[in-house]
Design a protein that fits this description.
4 helices; 76 residues; mainly alpha; CHCH; Cys_alpha_HP_mot_SF
Length: 76
């Protein structure tokens, strides 16, 4: 009996998913741009929330970093 091995068809393979925050950043691009120097902290918070199934308690370091950045920005 002849053994047939299937090779995956490149057309049927799905492309790799975008980074966690990519879709949110595309939708809310203007809002993210307004954050300016705090935007990377905002996006890392979004990643944490996605990775932790929206568990805010596990993302407190990100929350506090974003809060501190925002406070520094508003004191200028």
């Amino acid at each position: 009996m002849e053994k047939v091995t299937e090779k995956p068809n490149s057309e049927t393979q799905l492309p790799p998913p975008p980074p966690n925050h990519q879709m949110d950043a595309d939708d809310d691009d203007e809002n993210v741009k307004q954050l300016k120097e705090c935007s990377s902290l905002y996006l890392s918070l979004q990643d944490c929330l996605v990775d932790s199934n929206r568990d805010w308690k596990s993302c407190q370091k990100h929350v506090q970093a974003l809060k501190a950045c925002h406070e520094r920005k508003t004191k200028k």
